[in-house]
Amino acid sequence: MSTPPKDEPLLELDEIQGNVVPGFKKNHQHFVFFSISDAAAARTCLSKLHERLSSAAEVFEAHLAWKRLKARLGRDPDAAQFLFVNIALSASGLGTLIGKADVDTFADTAFKIGQAERSTFIGDPAAKTDPGHAAGWLVGGPKHPVDGVLILASDDLPWLEDESKKLETEFAAGGMKIEHKDRGDVGTAPRAGHEHFGFKDDISHPAMRGRWPKAPYDFLAPRTLPADKAFDPLRADFAAPGNRLVWPGHFIFGYGRQNPDDPRIYEPANEPKGPTWARNGSLMVYRRLRQHPDVFWRFVEDTASVLAKTNPKSAPDKNRLAALLIGRWPSGTPVARSADKDIGITGDALNYFSYADKQVPPLPGDAAPQAADPDGLLCPLGAHIRKVNPRDQATDLGISERTPPRSILRRGITYATREGDKGLLFVAYQSSITDQFEFLMRQWVNKPDTPRNMAGQDPILAQGRGRVFHLPIDGKMKEIAITKTFVEATGGEYFFSPSIGFFRKQLARAAKK
């Protein structure tokens, strides 16, 4: 029997729900929100579902099988269809099923209070009459509280819809009421892999450290940097170009986190705090984010026209201005690598760049320029992707090594309704909503002088009417006022995605009492 390596922890992948890691990554996802009316019946119903929940191991294997078929066929396979199911519970739902005393042992304040109560804290409007205030949410909030969410995902929409109906019927008969349903579909975006403003999305992600629990004990995040010795300095910190390695305790309960000042040092005792049954679970953020592409592009066109009059020789046109606000061109090409035009970078090179220092060495076959941009003259300090991921630059926290613990695992998907409502069903996993998602929103997105001084608020996610964006023109920063809201919340809640063992053990035992 081979001895497992000790460089990274072994993860119990049969216990972790699969949308936490590696993520479902399917074309269609349904989010079915429910409340609990009969706690005893709900315990019995949910405890019996453990065999139907999709584990991380199952989802990893499904993705690998799909990739092998695609490589063999040279195209997307027609018959390799999978359907994944997960369940997450709010603090109120867990309190009803297990007891408030257990829920109180979670250290995370945000989770226990709930998203609606924290909404203004993370930048949502304070006035009840303003769009985006929790009082008007379609799901969550004071008018539509929920105890849990059932997540289903597949590339086969009829199969997904049929399974969803079956589970909804079971829930209704098991002491639960369906309160709201959101349908995510990648086909609702202007182009595959893009979001509704028209930009390629889902490019940059943290790579979770850890290994499979059985031989050959492979890394969860494959290490794909070139084998050349020149990449050795990067190999200790990145799984793939731009994909920073982060210890699992920043995402999953029961595992350690990094030393505060050294991302390479694992501290096994530095685990997220919660009840003993929280092991292999993760805190989940759900935000129903309505986008306003017409408002965004009208602002971009109007602003570009004004700048053309005041700076006729150097003002950006509307497409370049939009890219500077986002930090990427529609193709995903980072403006830090091509500030003047969209050169259509592809593959790993899309995520291979830094800010404080020039990114070296070059990737094989990647001839696009690299340059240091510490002062935001190429990619503005306030560009959306730079605000939420400052990469190698020092921040208000201090050295850049303190940034990885703020990472989140994003699992969102676009949506659109027949009524013209469109946007993103934002889903993120972490081990502390307070210190990760809420930190990003409160400390970086909505403050003008973070992560770097003179950054301005996030031009895309921040909702304040008086926010400011600092645009580099002729080597100087020009202040641009943004009075319109491009993204607003129309629903949301904080959840806990328990281990599969929680349903099999804790809920089953509680159901028998």
Overall description:
The chain is an alpha+beta fold and 513 residues long. It folds into 2 domains: 28-289 and 492-512, no CATH class; 290-415 and 445-490, no CATH class. It has 13 helices and 16 strands. The chain has helices at residues 39-47, 56-73, 91-97, 100-104, 109-113, 115-118, 157-173, 232-235, 293-310, 318-326, 384-388, 437-445, 500-512; strands spanning 28-36, 83-89, 148-154, 176-185, 207-208, 238-240, 243-246, 257-259, 262-267, 282-291, 409-410, 413-416, 422-430, 467-473, 476-482, 487-497. The strands form 5 sheets. Strands 10, 11, 12, 13 and 16 form a 5-stranded antiparallel beta sheet that branches. A hairpin with a 2-residue loop joins strand 6 (238-240) and strand 7 (243-246). Helix 1 packs across helix 13 and helix 9 packs across helix 10 (318-326).
Q: How many individual domains?
A: 2
Gap from first CA to last CA: 42 Å
**How confident overall, as mean pLDDT?**
96
Largest sheet: 5 strands, antiparallel
Strand residue content: 15-25%
Helix-strand string: EHHEHHHHEHEEHEEEEEHHHEEEHEEEH
- By DSSP (H or I, 4+ residues per run), the number of helices equals 13
By secondary-structure content and strand pairing, the structural class works out as alpha+beta
Dominant shape: globular
Approximate helicity band: 10-25%
Find the count of extended strands (DSSP E, 2+ residues): 16
User: Uncertain regions: pLDDT < 50 for 5+ in a row?
Assistant: none
Instruction: Calculate Rg over CA atoms.
Output: 23 Å
